[in-house]
UniProtKB/TrEMBL annotation:
It comes from the Bacteria. Residues 13-378 form the Glutamine amidotransferase type-2 domain. The active site is at 13 (for gatase activity). This is Glutamine amidotransferase type-2 domain-containing protein. Keywords: Glutamine amidotransferase, Transferase. Gene3D superfamilies: Glutamine Phosphoribosylpyrophosphate, subunit 1, domain 1. The lineage of its organism: Bacteria, Bacillati, Bacillota, Clostridia, Eubacteriales.
Amino acid sequence: MVREGTFRNISGCAISGIFSKSGRRFSGKLIMDSIATMRERSNGLGGGFAAYGIYPEYKDYYAFHIFYDSEAAKEECEKFLDRHFEIISLSKIPTRKIPQITDAPLIWRYFMAPSPVKLAESNLDEREYVVRCVFRINSTIDGAYVFSSGKNMGVFKAVGYPEDVGRFYRLEEYEGYCFTAHGRYPTNTPGWWGGAHPFALLDYSVVHNGEISSYDTNRRTIEMYGYKCMLKTDTEVIAYMIDYLHRKKKLTLNEVGTVFAAPFWSSMENMPEQEREQVEFLRNAFESFLINGPFSIIVGFEGGIMALNDRLKLRSMVIGEKDDMVYIASEEAAIRIVQNDLDRVWSPGGGEPVIKTIEKVKTMEKIRTIEEGMLQCV
């Protein structure tokens, strides 16, 4: 038997995403069937899913999914949560015992709102307050790890093949408008529950196939802005950089894609002047956020999904569409297994962000743009 570490699988890891542009909710079984098709791309050391729209009854509350190594860690963490949040509901995350998934930690779920008193004392906006609480737990409470912290969404991950992870978490019982999935083939870090994909912060989640050679530069840069990278994996860094650029710096997701996979300087020379000036500005302003190395990523966020390849397209990615449904995967077979009758199927170019959002979200963005224009005129 060839052992891990004695060879490198250059195409290892599988990613998949399914999204409804109308916001229609569908069963998690679809994404399980899709990712299972690419089983040979992973090695059983990590699998996981991000699901959006699954908690409509608690849609106004932050859903924390937390791993605990011990009851002592759980007790300490819950004391922190009691001081900083108003807990609406808490429970174990439902799972089923299967022989393929072993050594599970304690897995709990909390629906919460920030404590009004603590939030006012912090002088922070609500989302920044939640982010700082997440990092506080993960960096100071030994044996506690918040691996999901968004509203009306959740991450489900473990050590195992992704289809087994889905069965373990009973993912087929959830319904959402967007699911992403990952089958892991770790090359530089060990397989453990916290290191499985997706990586998430607030409503942003990332699944990633590739290997980022700029990891150290990206990590040192994002840590300067208060983010704590403790999981020793490049995908964690991508999630935090998206949060910083999109939530804090207010870049659009198209601009985030341009920062991550910036065109080469030689390519910029042939761009129209206005486009070239914008791209050059982003390249210079966020130089240390450039991602080098082969990668393909799927980003989930509230109301949408984004797919992005590295600028040389060194990792495969295929996109298919049928009516209001969008399918993204490392291989076309993972799309065809759940929807063979496609209206369109294509592979995006290197560095070309593909962004899909719920139609009503687009309408609201147009309204906000019009309102902002009117205010500027006044």
